[in-house]
Design brief:
single chain, about 210 residues, mainly alpha, 2 domains, 8 helices, transmembrane helix, transmembrane, DUF4129 domain-containing protein, TgpA-like_C, membrane
């Protein structure tokens, strides 16, 4: 009735429902950076939803039900997404796959993909090339099954001036390989340029006893 105090839709209940769902173990079986990016995406969507719903949905219980149901649907989508990524990432044989190639071979493959405008494959091969080159220079110890994130972290300690770029490159590789992102000419150019700079970079090891050729 017009004389009654306005009834607002409480937001805490929707957030509590989301937090309860996100406390389940399935959401924590992934790379922390991947989970954090997915979580940030979810909160952005929930925030947008609550802002719109505060002025568009009916007040009281009906409005709350609409919001909670929508949040649940977003959580289902997030859970499916993370499950898909986990199946892909745990089923793969690491950064290099089963076949052993030299850095030069990876670069050749990358250029062939780029010439055909297959930017996703070209970017993946360029990332493999730059990591393999660091192994060939003994900046990194060869390690079967090494992931892009592990390679970037190890290389960043020896090449601190490039640590941030290496981390960004690893996340880009993961997004292309496991996250469904499509490569572009720009993503390939970023990795190609980084590969070139790393070939000229001089490693900084912890002490003289750890110096490598």
């Amino acid at each position: 009735m017009s004389g009654d105090a306005p009834v607002t839709t409480p937001r805490d209940a929707a957030r509590e429902a989301a937090e309860h769902e996100l406390s389940k173990g399935i959401y924590h079986q992934h790379d922390p950076s991947l989970f954090q990016r997915a979580l940030d995406w979810l909160w952005d969507k929930v925030g947008d939803l609550l802002t719109v719903a505060s002025g568009a949905t009916p007040s009281g219980g009906v409005g709350l039900l609409v919001i909670v149901l929508t949040v649940v649907l977003l959580l289902v989508a997030l859970r499916w997404r993370l499950g898909k990524v986990r199946r892909l990432s745990t089923g793969g044989p690491g950064l290099f796959g089963d076949r052993t190639r030299t850095a030069a071979e990876h670069r050749t493959a990358a250029e062939q993909h780029a010439a055909a405008r297959r930017w996703t494959e070209a970017s993946q091969e360029r990332m493999r090339a730059l990591v393999r080159a660091l192994e060939e220079r003994t900046v990194l110890d060869p390690r079967p099954g090494r992931t892009a994130d592990e390679a970037a972290a190890d290389a960043g300690r020896a090449l601190p001036d490039h640590a941030t770029e290496l981390g960004d490159a690893a996340r880009l590789f993961d997004d292309l390989t496991y996250g469904g992102r499509t490569g572009t000419e720009q993503t390939y150019a970023v990795l190609r340029d980084l590969d070139g700079r790393l070939q000229r970079a001089k490693p900084q090891f912890a002490d003289a006893g750890d110096a490598r050729p």
